[in-house]
């Protein structure tokens, strides 16, 4: 599918569109002989939702979050059209190709619904909208807009969300600073090793933000080049324990963890220990799990102590 961008709001569009779905801007001139185009009827917002409405929406939301889209999507869409911010956010998630548990893959609709929810004060939608602007997902890249919405997310989020949104905002500022420094030469240029480390550090954060499809090609490339952290992260992308992944493959998961362990990566030691602890991709072997946890701890990874303590509790 080929796209252009709306000159009014920057929304990415299919070239067949005559009107921008984001702002309604007319994209093509109409023939003088053509019949006047009928404007789509304006959506009428509902009155304050009743308890029954709220119950219906919450039931649909629970089904949606359980992956039962056939049973829930029409109801979610109904409330999104009525102006319910949470429903609009869920519609954005549904179409977002980087949300693993949702089947949608339409960047223009992703941006459209996140923008709707963000305009109504939905903090998570604001943060996701910032990502759209940063990477050009459904809209022309615009770093100023990415910064604006990332900051809005921090300002509007609750205490727990603010910590997550602040992390993304700080990372974004750091990437902008690095790019600026590279252009004006005001700071020392990173070596290849330093840049690789920064790239993989960012990839790890995106992994825990469930952006697995986004990082997979990059970490696979690093892993195949022999980078230990890249090998561990590729193993994590294949691992079906914990964060859901579209690439689950227990054998490949163990293979890459072992590669990283051979290079002394302590995170891979703990992850491989977990595989042996629960029999994931390998026969269950508690002795081997303990050995790997202990090795990681001896090499200075303090987080391994928690896994050793848990084994002592359940042994």
Explain this structure:
62% of the residues lie in helices and 2% in strands. The protein is mostly helical and 315 residues long. The protein folds into two domains: 53-183, Tetratricopeptide repeat domain (Serine Threonine Protein Phosphatase 5, Tetratricopeptide repeat, Alpha Horseshoe); 210-314, Alpha Horseshoe (Serine Threonine Protein Phosphatase 5, Tetratricopeptide repeat), CATH 1.25.40.10. Strands 1-2 form a two-stranded antiparallel sheet. Strand 1 and strand 2 form a beta hairpin. Helix 1 (51-65) packs across helix 2 (69-81), helix 4 (107-119) packs across helix 5 (123-135) and helix 12 (266-278) runs antiparallel to helix 13 (286-298). The longest helix has 26 residues, at 159-184. It is globular and about 65 Å long. The termini are far apart. Residues 29-47 have low confidence and may be disordered.
| Total number of strands | 2
Reported for the largest beta sheet, the result is: 2 strands, antiparallel
Mean pLDDT reading: 81
Q: Report the C-alpha radius of gyration, rounded.
A: 23 Å
Unreliably modeled segments: 29-47
Walk across the major sheet and give the strand order. 1-2
Helix content: 55-70%
Straight-line distance between termini: 56 Å
């Amino acid at each position: 599918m080929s796209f252009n961008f709306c000159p009014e709001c920057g929304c990415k569009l299919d070239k067949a569109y005559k009107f921008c779905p984001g702002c309604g801007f007319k994209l093509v001139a109409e023939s003088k002989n053509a019949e006047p185009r009928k404007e789509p009827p304006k959506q009428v917002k509902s009155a304050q939702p009743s308890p029954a409405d709220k119950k219906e929406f919450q039931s649909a939301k629970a089904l949606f979050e359980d992956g039962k889209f056939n049973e829930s999507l029409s109801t979610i869409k109904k409330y999104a059209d009525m102006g319910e911010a949470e429903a609009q956010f869920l519609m954005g998630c549904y179409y977002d190709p980087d949300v693993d548990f949702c089947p949608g893959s339409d960047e223009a609709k992703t941006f459209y619904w996140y923008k709707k929810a963000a305009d109504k004060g939905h903090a998570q939608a604001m943060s996701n909208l910032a990502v759209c602007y940063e990477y050009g997902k459904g809209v022309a890249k615009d770093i100023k807009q990415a910064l604006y919405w990332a900051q809005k997310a921090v300002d509007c989020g609750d205490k727990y969300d603010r910590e997550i949104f602040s992390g993304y905002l700080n990372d974004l500022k750091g990437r902008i600073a690095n790019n600026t420094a590279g252009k004006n030469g005001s700071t020392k240029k990173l070596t290849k090793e330093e840049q690789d480390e920064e790239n993989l550090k960012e990839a790890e954060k995106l992994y825990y933000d469930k952006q697995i499809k986004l990082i997979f090609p990059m970490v696979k490339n690093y892993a195949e080049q022999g980078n230990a952290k890249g090998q561990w992260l590729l193993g994590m992308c294949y691992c079906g324990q914990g964060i859901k992944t579209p690439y689950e493959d227990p054998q490949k998961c163990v293979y890459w963890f072992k590669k990283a362990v051979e290079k002394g990566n302590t995170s891979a030691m703990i992850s491989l220990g977990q595989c042996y602890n629960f029999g994931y991709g390998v026969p269950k072997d508690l002795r081997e799990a303990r050995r790997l946890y202990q090795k990681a701890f001896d090499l200075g990874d303090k987080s391994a102590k928690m896994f050793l303590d848990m084994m002592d509790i359940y042994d």
